[in-house]
Task: structure prediction
Amino acid sequence: MNAEIIAVGTELLLGDILNTNARFLSRELSGLGIDVYYQEVVGDNPDRLKSVIHTAIRRSDIVVLSGGLGPTDDDLTKETVADYFNLPLYFDEQVMAEMTEYLRGRHIVPSNKKQAYIPEGAKIIHNNYGTAPGIIIEQDEKIVIMLPGPPRELEPLFSEQVKPYLDAKSDYIMKSKVLRIFGLGESSAAEKVRDLMESANPTLAPYAKDSEVILRITAKANTDARADKLIDEMYKKVNDRIGEYIYGFDDDEMKAVLCRLLTEKGKTIAAAESCTAGLFSAMIADNPGASAVLNEGIVTYSNEAKEKYLGVLHETLEKYGAVSEQTAREMAEGIKKAAKSDIGVGITGIAGPDGGTPEKPVGLVYVGIAYDGGCEVLKLNLIGTRQKVRYAAVLNAMNAVRKILLNNA
Amino acid sequence: MNAEIIAVGTELLLGDILNTNARFLSRELSGLGIDVYYQEVVGDNPDRLKSVIHTAIRRSDIVVLSGGLGPTDDDLTKETVADYFNLPLYFDEQVMAEMTEYLRGRHIVPSNKKQAYIPEGAKIIHNNYGTAPGIIIEQDEKIVIMLPGPPRELEPLFSEQVKPYLDAKSDYIMKSKVLRIFGLGESSAAEKVRDLMESANPTLAPYAKDSEVILRITAKANTDARADKLIDEMYKKVNDRIGEYIYGFDDDEMKAVLCRLLTEKGKTIAAAESCTAGLFSAMIADNPGASAVLNEGIVTYSNEAKEKYLGVLHETLEKYGAVSEQTAREMAEGIKKAAKSDIGVGITGIAGPDGGTPEKPVGLVYVGIAYDGGCEVLKLNLIGTRQKVRYAAVLNAMNAVRKILLNNA
Result:
């Protein structure tokens, strides 16, 4: 089965709010094995609303509408859909009673009554979260589901009533696994798995996200176990080719993966940050429970601070400069010692937009990582804005620490 | 003129990401006096993509597309639009050279070359933020604008190149001024200017953004001078009522306002951060030229680090706890002394999700600010997730430093 999602609301067309309903509904429908082919947003203009709704019902098996069920004359979703199927509206006493109950003690304006009119033969989605009921019309092998626009109403109504309804209609399930990749660009990743991307079931699709690449495996099957098997087979093939670049799965971000690994191994970490100026530590601390692995960190933007807190040698800074392999190494070793941590990270680079030279261009970053077994220094040539360079520097540093932890158990 | 916005991307149909591009483009186009009638999302299926693009070009004056300009075979936006207008694609040497320059030294895979093919006669939107150039086709009284999908590319390309292009096409001008407000919630701000929000030209509209509130004044006029006059009159009225909460204008973020103010006054700043763990320093360093005001900073997550680097008294931590007015004060004074800076900031709080108690709930944050004239401590009760609490703590700290700088010239 395929579906499309229509959000009705002028505030979306003005850019006042984000269309979180489309995202929620897309994710939920995909999870039910229903392919979402289109999303639309349209305002409360009757002609344009009618044209969008008619097109959608003609081309899709399921149409999910959000918004336009309110009490004002502008709210025309229900009327437009009923008109398409030639269904008259009747006044539903029970819906009116529920609405009165919901508005308990509040003034019921005449326009509220409009919300109690229901297309004949429709299934009513009773709403405990607001005044407008949801409505499902099933006719001519089409399903049209209308839900109120506010996410606080739409989301629970979908989960509690629409999902079980659709579940019962579906004859297969869809499952996904996201592979999170670091150190390989989108094009390079796609090059390496191009033939696998031609598979129809499970599918494999890449996309870029900040400084990372995501590969999504999606399987369609009759049973959960069969879907898992399809996913697992594809995962193994991908893993054989680019396994070394896969650092995590699904919603597991690099900072969470690293923090968990440190916790598991009982290791502490501390960073001395020049160009990133605290971002590494702040991202470690994004994880609840970070205090088990992070005690302290130092922002050493100036050379003086690098000498004072980290014991970087004055001669090193004079001879090689603040952005150099030598300085990164001394920063990493210095912070490890100062913080008495198991791992010390030193980050120094040129984030831009100014400060680059032909020998040391913007985007040049050195990352030192000191650990009990030694000290490694990465040389990075990063691209993009100041913010992007700094963010990518932190992700590279985290990935390098992760690898060292895995290899030096 | 009317417009519609098409986002191309399977990840949107799967609900993996929010359609922030549609919101950004809707807001920008509305600001230019262009009515947005439809938004759509479609995946990379060639037939469905074609059907959506053809319908859009037929019914709208301007079609803005985002996404589908990448290097893979799935990326078909450019090819589909060129096909509609019967425009052949040519290989653009300059675009290729720019891409090579952007990818500086990286491996250019064959698929990157695909991005350098341009429909004949098209206007190229050169992209300094990524590899895929934007493209504008103007033909048969239609305008089709194609932009790369990543918001970090789309947003600056639109602002810097598409906006001036569309501005020149319009017979009247729209101008906006954004008032950035801190310390007043969206409803409270709206309450204070409710009558002004009924004005038709210029309009005044509030919206919430992260931990801030934005008020946008938009004027429509025949001349630039007339638009400026309308904006200025409205600004004065708003300023009379809530001027003390306005900290900046347009894209001037709090971190930039503060960094500039410090630079102008020749003051240096250093932060000792517990719950924010480097975020304050990292956000100061987001500003190019931050090295003029920032030399160093310390992340003192553990009590031991607070004593060691900042000289916070052991008794203070024992008696009042790490999250207390007293500790925040000693942290601020300690970092000011250690860093020999003009201003010292100490931030300590409970970011959650765990660690709260009835006396010290999640969201309780103390911010100390030491300066040559004294030391102030703010007590904040913040709401939201761990990340939101930490971000709001930093913004509150920055705003407080800003006020101290303004009052203690």
Remarks:
- Residues 69 and 75 of chain A are 5 Å apart (CA to CA).
- Chain A has three domains: 2-169, 173-249, 254-407.
- The mean pLDDT of chain A is 93.
